[in-house]
What we know:
N-(1-d-carboxylethyl)-l-norvaline Dehydrogenase, domain 2; hydroxylation; globular; alpha/beta; binds nicotinamide-adenine-dinucleotide; single chain; eight-stranded mixed β-sheet; 8 strands; 2 domains; binds 3-hydroxybutanoyl-coenzyme A; 13 helices; Rossmann fold
Amino acid sequence: MAKNLIINNIFKRNFSSTNALSRKINSVSVVGSGLMGSGIAQVTAEAGYSVYLIDQNQNALDKAMKSIQNSLTRSTKKRFNKEPDHAERYIKDTMDRIQATTELDSGAEKSDLIIEAIVENIQAKHDLFSKLDSISPKETIFTSNTSSLPITEIAQSVNRKDRFGGLHFFNPVPVMKLLEVIKTHETSDATYKTLLEYGLSIGKTTVECKDTPGFIVNRLLVPYMFEAVKMYERGDASFQDIDTAMKLGAGYPMGPFELLDYVGLDTSKFIIDGWRKRYPNDSTFQSSPVIDQLVSEGRLGRKTGEGFYNYKK
Length: 313
Ligand SMILES: C[C@H](O)CC(=O)SCCNC(=O)CCNC(=O)[C@H](O)C(C)(C)COP(=O)(O)OP(=O)(O)OC[C@H]1O[C@@H](n2cnc3c(N)ncnc32)[C@H](O)[C@@H]1OP(=O)(O)O
Ligand SMILES: NC(=O)c1ccc[n+]([C@@H]2O[C@H](COP(=O)([O-])OP(=O)(O)OC[C@H]3O[C@@H](n4cnc5c(N)ncnc54)[C@H](O)[C@@H]3O)[C@@H](O)[C@H]2O)c1
C-alpha cells in the first residue's frame, strides 16, 4: 500500500506538470516468443489486454504457449488453491486472450502497443521495425525489450521516433517485479506516460531510465557476471563454489553462473560483444573464452538443456 503510494507520488511529480495525455491501450503485440516474449505475453494477457504473440517460427510459438500454460498452472495453484474451478477459468481466460501467429501483419495492424523481444541483434531489430513502421497504424507505440542496445539506435529505422521507447523486463517475467522504462531524447511525454501506465497496469514497479548502456540493472549485473567468469577462467575458484559463495555470502537468489545459464549464454555474449565494439578501451567488456566456447558448441544454458550446468539429468 505504502509502496503504491510512493510510486503514484513519483508518477504525479514527474507528469502532473506536463499536459501530456496518455494513449489508451487495448491490444498489444509481442514480437518474439522466446524466453522473454512468452513471459511478456503472459503478464499482459493476465492484466486483461488482448495479445498477439508473433514469431517467425511456429515451433517457438508452440513452445511459448506450452510454457505460458505451465507458468499459469504453477502460479494459480497457490493463488486459488481452494478454488480449482476458479484457477481453471483464470487460465482459460488468460490463454484465450493470447493469439499466437507467424503473421506479423495480423497483430501489427490492430495493436496500440508493440513490444519487440526478438534476438539481440541490431540488424534484425532494424529489419523488423522498418516492416512494422509501414504496416502499423501511425498512433501505435513501438518499444524494444533490448538488454543492451541503445533504444535511440533501434529507433533509427522508423519515422515515429516520438512514439518509440524501451520496456526492459526481467527473467522470469511473471515473477520479477521490475520494469525499466526507457526514454530517449525523442520519446514524447505522452508516449512515456503511456508506457509507465502500462507498466503499472501489469503490476510491475517501474523505474525511469535514460538511454544509457545497460540502463540501470544490466550496467551493474552484466559486468558482475563476466567478472565471475574471469575469476573461474583464472582458476581462482570452481564455478560451483563461486555460485555457492554469492548465494550464501551475498544473499543472491542465484549464483552468477546459474544466472548466466538462466539468461542464456548467447544473449549474454551478444551483450558483452556489443559493448566491447562500442567501448573498445573499457576492459570491463572483455570477451570470455569459456563463454565463446560454450556458445559455439550450442550449450546456451537452460534453454538448450546445458550451459555451465547440465539440466538434462
Ligand atoms: C539480461 C536481461 O536483460 C535482464 C535480466 O533478466 S537479468 C536476470 C534477472 N533475474 C534474476 O536475477 C533471477 C534470479 N533468480 C531468482 O530470483 C529466483 O531464483 C527465481 C525467482 C528464478 C526462482 O526462485 P526459487 O525460489 O529458486 O524457485 P521456486 O521456488 O521454483 O520459485 C519461486 C516462486 O516463483 C514462481 N516461479 C518461478 N518461475 C516461474 C515462472 N516461470 N512462472 C511463474 N512462476 C514462477 C514459483 O512458482 C514460486 O512461487 P511461490 O513462491 O508462490 O511458490
Ligand atoms: N534472456 C533474458 O534474460 C533477457 C532479459 C531481458 C531482455 N532480454 C532481451 O529480450 C530479447 C529476447 O531475448 P530472449 O532471451 O527471449 O531470446 P530467445 O532466443 O529466447 O527468443 C527470441 C525469439 O525471437 C524469435 N525471432 C527472431 N527474429 C524474429 C523476427 N524477425 N520476427 C519474429 N520473431 C523472431 C525467435 O524465433 C525466438 O523465438 C533480446 O533483445 C534480449 O536481449 C533478454
